[in-house]
Design goal:
5 helices, eleven-stranded mixed beta sheet, Pseudouridine synthase, 17% helix, alpha+beta
């Protein structure tokens, strides 16, 4: 059952669980769009019984968080404009990342492309030379808390050869404000900056993978926890916020 935060005749706002795709071409895999359509048909609480849903934005399959679907073409057009750079849609994320930061606030500015073979985001400092076509990717972040892994209640799950070294490792809870919305942007940029997200097997480092295993972080420790936009019909400011459900977030 998908948690619904708001629904009316024009939009549907809900919480995507970690591990479920927003939209999938596979008939054997459940996705948000399919499950929501089934819920709409079964539920007596939905005002609009149409199962038509327009995907406006996505979250990576391992990531949890708030997303909005449009229920009419007019609403879809309005929301799609708000998703664009400098639009009215504001997204705030929280992540648990490997390492400790020198400063409590910062900005990451890179250029991102996509490897067509590995399907991984590629990070570059500029878009010159071989990096033509890469798009500027900007985010701001604030460090909310930092802990040593010995302070986390789920530690000592896996034994490592160099236990003393592992006990010195730190993890940080960060709040992230996206300025652009690129493919795997948060995961790729933080990994490139030396702070891979815990549980991220695609953009991990050797040590972040070990820390994730020790702390039993199985999904990417990333949550789209706040979403703000203008209602496509009423122009009312819509604000939604959730608490991340991953166990590692509850340690902070």
């Amino acid at each position: 059952m998908i948690e619904i935060l708001h629904e009316d005749n024009d939009i549907l706002v809900c919480v995507k669980p970690a591990g479920m795709a927003v939209q999938s071409s596979s008939v054997t895999s459940e996705d948000m769009e399919t499950v929501l359509r089934s819920q709409i048909l079964r539920s007596g609480t939905f005002k609009n019984k149409s199962t038509l849903l327009h995907v406006i934005h996505r979250l990576d399959q391992p990531v949890e968080g708030i997303i909005v679907f449009a229920r009419t073409k007019k609403a879809a057009a309005s929301l799609s404009k708000q998703v664009q750079a400098d639009g009215d849609m504001s997204k705030v994320y929280r992540a648990v990342v490997y390492g400790e930061f020198a400063d409590k606030e910062g900005k990451l500015t890179d250029y991102l492309g996509k490897d067509p073979v590995t399907k991984k985001a590629i990070v570059a400092a500029d878009n010159n030379g071989n990096n033509k076509g890469f798009k500027e990717s900007i985010l701001d972040y604030k460090v909310l808390s930092t802990k040593g892994i010995t302070e986390v209640s789920t530690n000592n799950v896996v034994d490592f050869d160099d236990n003393n070294k592992m006990e010195q490792e730190k993890i940080s809870l960060v709040e992230i404000y996206l300025k652009t919305g690129r493919y795997h942007q948060i995961r790729a940029q933080f990994s490139n900056a030396g702070h891979p997200l815990l549980g991220d097997r695609r953009y991990m480092s050797e040590v972040s993978d070990e820390v994730s295993a020790r702390l039993r972080v199985r999904n990417v420790a990333l949550c789209a926890c706040r979403l703000e936009f203008k209602h496509p019909v009423t122009n009312k400011i819509m604000k939604f916020e959730i608490e991340p459900q991953g166990d590692i977030f509850k340690e902070f």
